[in-house]
Design a protein that fits this description.
- With 222 residues, the chain is α/β, with parallel strands linked by helices.
- It has one domain: P-loop containing nucleotide triphosphate hydrolases (Rossmann fold).
- It has eight helices and nine strands.
- A five-stranded parallel sheet has the order 6-7-8-3-9. The protein has a four-stranded antiparallel sheet with strand order 2-1-4-5.
- Strand 4 and strand 5 form a beta hairpin.
- The protein is globular.
- The two termini are 24 Å apart.
């Protein structure tokens, strides 16, 4: 799925109450099946851009097309359903629910789309096996290492064959070895299944793994 942003403006209230533009992007086009790193310093608007693409936030103006659908024009409920069906999100802070097991955390995101519970369970088990957690299906997040929790969040993002995967500093809380393993895993699955990956980072080691790197400040300048 291609992602196309045009004339995108997002503001937040400044200290004096007046709106301050954190993003002002004339055009950003990410072709289907590509892997792109969006880079920039903390506070530059990288995460805001991902949240706009995901429909978690809405801009003051502009359009965001994902697979030909302008998510800006959708209602909040429609955006939630569109995201559940088409967009996987790997959060830096994992966003796992501790009262649920690894298997249940992956399955939860599937309920928005619907389908037979047995099918959801089989898919979730397969994804957790793919990320090396077949022996941790019934562990709660607090019983998992930081790297294992991130693998659960990757499995959740890949559920339902999401064609667009957004990753917000996915290695920010990991040590060097875990970071390399997680990035290997993400990029191998994305490449094999020809999905679209948009990853934001400020880590030069992560940037070096991508052939397409876009600086958010340059996007705002053009």
């Amino acid at each position: 799925m291609a992602v196309i942003c045009k004339n995108l403006i997002k503001t937040y209230p400044g200290p004096d109450g007046r709106p301050v533009a954190i993003l002002n992007i004339q055009e950003l086009e990410i072709s289907e099946g590509t892997q792109v790193a969006i880079v920039g310093q903390s506070g530059s608007g990288k995460t805001t851009l991902l949240n706009l693409i995901a429909g978690i936030l809405t801009p003051e103006s502009g359009s965001i097309e994902v697979a030909g659908t302008d998510v800006v024009k959708l209602s909040e409920e429609e955006r939630d359903r569109f995201r559940a069906a088409h967009i996987g999100y790997i959060f830096q802070t994992f966003n796992l629910l501790d009262e649920f097991t690894a298997l249940e955390n992956v399955m939860l995101g599937m309920y928005f789309v619907g389908g037979a519970r047995s099918r959801m369970r089989a898919e979730a088990e397969g994804l957790l096996e793919a990320v090396g957690l077949s022996d941790r299906l019934h562990y709660h997040p607090r019983q998992l290492s930081t790297g294992q929790q991130q693998r659960v969040s990757i499995a959740r993002a890949l559920a339902h064959d999401h064609r667009v995967i957004l990753a917000d500093e996915p290695t920010g809380n990991l040590d060097a070895d875990s970071s390399r393993q997680v990035l290997d895993l993400i990029q191998q699955i994305i490449s094999r299944e020809k999905r679209t990956l948009i990853l934001v980072t400020h880590d030069p080691r992560v940037m070096g793994r991508f052939s397409i790197v876009r600086n958010v400040e340059e996007l705002k300048a053009n």
